[in-house]
């Protein structure tokens, strides 16, 4: 930790605090993600998955991991500092977000996702707040705590308790444990729709309400449009009244035909027919006017406020620097 100067607490993730710091070796700003661990036990799976995924994935649209440290009873991940997220862009009422800009953000997300899937890694928690944006406007996928290696040749069972509810695919809502990388594409479809409408597409307050909203929008699924539906673990536990699918022009009234055509290929029940990241990148959506804008033409956000301080946390963090040093993990 002697190589870093702490500048303040920049946020709080699902598994620990995030501090902004300066790397004294090169003057770069970094984000230090502090994750508590039990020193008597092995490093938690979610921490190991994030470390291993980020060490494999070296790409322009995936956040860069620079160092992994052990500091007392914490693991500290040092990553490039990206001051904003797509969530802030969407929620900023003073920021316009036109279709050309939406296409550029979507393209960066899909490029990062295609690279990830090419390396057989599912993210499993894509959402606007996990899509970080640097000062030059480059978007990068972050927060790999739920990432998992997948292999189509081996029928592994995965936890269905993944992905933030609003971006969770219907097979997960029905308890599937044999899903594939298309769960990430469902999330991407929800995110693109959210950029257009500036509000979540399926904002359920509970898992049951979430599923009810999806079914009420896309219509009651059948074994024809969703093979294997009746074999899903929670299929017989939940019953909903029949509903007809709504037209996409009604679901997202502010989108044009080409945009709706892409979303209709992503947000479908059958995970094996769901559009892949590679296919989406080749879609007319990116080849028709308005074309994706340049990075320099993306929304400009105000410089974020200085990181906040909680001196108890600061003292606690620094206090571990005096602990007996441990070798760098991995």
UniProtKB/TrEMBL annotation:
MF GO annotations: ATP binding; cyclin-dependent protein serine/threonine kinase activity
Organism ancestry: Eukaryota, Metazoa, Ecdysozoa, Arthropoda, Hexapoda
Family statement drawn from the similarity comment of this UniProt entry: Belongs to the protein kinase superfamily. CMGC Ser/Thr protein kinase family. CDC2/CDKX subfamily.
Presence of the UniProt keyword Nucleotide-binding in the record: yes
UniProt cross-references to InterPro entries, sorted A to Z: CDK, Kinase-like_dom_sf, Prot_kinase_dom, Ser/Thr_kinase_AS
Keyword Ligase: no
Keywords: ATP-binding, Kinase, Nucleotide-binding, Serine/threonine-protein kinase, Transferase
Pfam families noted in UniProt: Pkinase (PF00069)
Stated name of the protein: Cyclin-dependent kinase 20
N-terminal signal peptide: none
Domain Protein kinase: residue ranges: 4-286
Catalytic activity line of the entry: L-seryl-[protein] + ATP = O-phospho-L-seryl-[protein] + ADP + H(+); L-threonyl-[protein] + ATP = O-phospho-L-threonyl-[protein] + ADP + H(+)
Gene source species: Psylliodes chrysocephalus
CC annotations in GO: nucleus
The protein's Enzyme Commission number: 2.7.11.22
């Amino acid at each position: 930790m002697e190589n870093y100067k702490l500048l303040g607490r920049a946020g709080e993730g699902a598994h620990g605090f995030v501090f902004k710091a300066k790397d004294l070796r090169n003057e770069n700003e970094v984000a230090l993600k502090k994750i508590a661990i039990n020193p008597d036990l092995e490093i938690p799976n979610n921490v190991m998955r994030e470390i291993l995924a980020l060490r494999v994935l070296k790409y322009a649209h995936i956040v860069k991991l620079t160092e992994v440290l052990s500091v007392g009873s914490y693991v500290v991940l040092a990553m490039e500092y990206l001051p904003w997220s797509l969530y802030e862009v969407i929620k900023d009422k003073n920021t316009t977000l036109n279709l050309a800009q939406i296409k550029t953000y979507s393209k960066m997300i899909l490029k990062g996702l295609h690279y990830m899937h090419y390396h057989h890694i599912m993210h499993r928690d894509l959402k606007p707040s996990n899509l970080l944006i640097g000062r030059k406007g480059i978007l990068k996928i972050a927060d790999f705590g739920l990432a998992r290696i997948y292999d189509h040749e081996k029928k592994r069972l995965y936890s269905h308790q993944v992905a933030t509810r609003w971006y969770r695919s219907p097979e997960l809502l029905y308890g599937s444990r044999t899903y594939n990388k298309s769960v990430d594409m469902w999330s991407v479809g929800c995110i693109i729709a959210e950029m257009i409408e500036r509000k979540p597409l399926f904002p359920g307050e509970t898992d049951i309400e979430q599923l009810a909203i999806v079914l009420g929008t896309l219509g009651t699924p059948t074994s024809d449009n969703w093979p294997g539906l009746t074999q899903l673990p929670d299929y017989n536990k939940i019953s909903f009244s029949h509903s007809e699918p709504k037209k996409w022009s009604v679901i997202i009234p502010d989108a044009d035909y080409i945009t709706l055509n892409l979303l209709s290929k992503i947000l479908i029940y059958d995970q094996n027919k769901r559009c892949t990241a590679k296919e989406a990148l080749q879609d007319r959506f990116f080849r028709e006017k308005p074309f994706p804008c340049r990075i320099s033409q993306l929304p400009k956000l105000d410089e974020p406020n200085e990181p906040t301080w909680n001196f108890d946390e600061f003292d606690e963090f620094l206090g571990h620097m005096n602990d007996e040093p441990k070798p760098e993990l991995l």
